Structure formats: structure tokens, C-alpha cells
Amino acid sequence: TKRPISPAAGQPSAKRGPAAITTTTTTAEADAGANQQLQAGKEEGMAKVEFADIGCGYGGLLVALSPLFPNTLMVGMEIRNKLVDYLQRRIEALREFQHDLVRRSNAGEQQIEWVDVRSKLDQEIAALHDEAAAQPEDNPAEDDDEEKELHDNGETRRLVPGHYDNIASMRINCQKYLPNFFEKGQLSKLFILFADPHFKRRKHKARIISTTMLAEYAYVLRVGGIIYTITDVKDLHDWNVKHLDVFPLFERIPDAELESDPAIPCVVNSTEEGKKVARNKGEKHLACYRRISDPAEL
Fold it and tell me: Is 238 a catalytic site residue?
């Protein structure tokens, strides 16, 4: 028998706002409907999701990345119902505010400011590097200027590119259903940030990075795509690196190369968990890997 197209197939679907479907759907109907939508999308040349945040939590990364990549569709995948519902409401509120600003701007209001997020981020990174070089390590500068945290939260009171129309959330158990939602090689970026460390040895098999899961990540990532991992738990970082290093379809990206990646500041600073680690002056361990070609497919 086929696996359901989503965890909710065969059950009343979870609420996703005013347009939520509340009827019961069988597995066969869900599979047929998904196949029809996929075929229709191919025929119409519709844009496809390219970024996926696994275990997106409250959506800090998505909200920060959205203005940086306004023409790229992104999805946050989370297993906890309450967080999925919260994030979708958060996204809808951001869109509504942005669209209101657009209407006011089109009506001739002069005080609406557009933000070039990518240029602003480049300026912030350069400024932070200069400050780090000038400040002693035991006395870091504390800056409350909201301008300096544009990439930390992404929620500005100014117009931003894309207006947050390119992000969404969904409830899914990625360890069971990830390949049901993406075609082979569809994604260009995959984020696994501050994942559950599952400290007990008997729970290590539940960690989101394993040999089995890496095979699925390699399937949905295109050649040249990047998987981003970060954690404040050194043991989990070592586990991730050990498994990624030996997996034949991934190669580690040197730290020097990551400095030019505009997504890195968001990965390090934008999630709610990452901000908590920073407030507690904890360490963050980053490792990024590039999907390489499969020799068997050449």
C-alpha cells in the first residue's frame, strides 16, 4: 500500500486559516489529488519550493530569509500543531501589514520607506566585523539600535521585497514523509537548525540527521544545493559532522566560503533558539555541506 501524501491523510485536516479543508480525505483521494496538482504545476510552469526549514519552530529563519530571496518559495516544516498554526498566523499578519503599506504607498503617502535588505545586510556584516576587531573579547559591544537587527527578525515596519508572500508553514513528520512533498533535486537549500539533541543513547536513532535521513536529503536536494546545520550542543554537532563527512553525496563547505553566503547571518542569528543561545552567551556550532553528483548517475 502507498504511504499517505501527508500525515493528515485519512484524518480530518488540521486548521490552516479561513480556507482550511475540514472534510475527511482517503489516502487514495489524497494521492490522486496530489498527482493532479503536481502535473498541473508542471504544465503551467509554476514556481516550486526551493528552500525548506525542517523543524522551523516559530519561523524566525523564514521571516528573515523572505526579504533576502523574494523570488524564492520557502516552506517551514514542523511537527507541532500549535507552532504551525502560530507561524501561519504570523505570516498572514506580516503579509497584511505589508500589503497595507503598499496600498498607502500607491495612494501617495510619502512616509513609506523601502528597504534594500541585501545591501543593508552586507553593511551590517561589515560593521559587525569592524566592531569585533575593535572590541576586546571580554567586553562585547551592546547595541540596541533596531536598524542593526534587521536580519535578526526580518519584521520591519517598512516595505520589504516580496512582502512575505513567498513563505508558508506546514505540519509534517519529515522523518516519515519528506520525499512525498518534493521532487528529486527540487530544493536548493535545506536548513536543520538547533534540532532536538536526543541526549539519551537509546534515542539517538531519532536524531534528524542519520544515514537514512541523509539519503532522503540527498534525494530532494539538487546538485550544488546546500544543507545548513547549526546547534549549541557540541555532541550533536560532532554527530552531524561524523555522519555528513562519511556520506558520499555531501562535501563540507569551507568556513571561508561561507562568509559570502547571505543566508549564514540568518542561520546563526534569526531563529528564536539561536537568540536564546546568544542571550545566554552559549556557543553555536555551524556546519554546511554541499550536495555533489552521484557517480552512479553520470
Answer: no
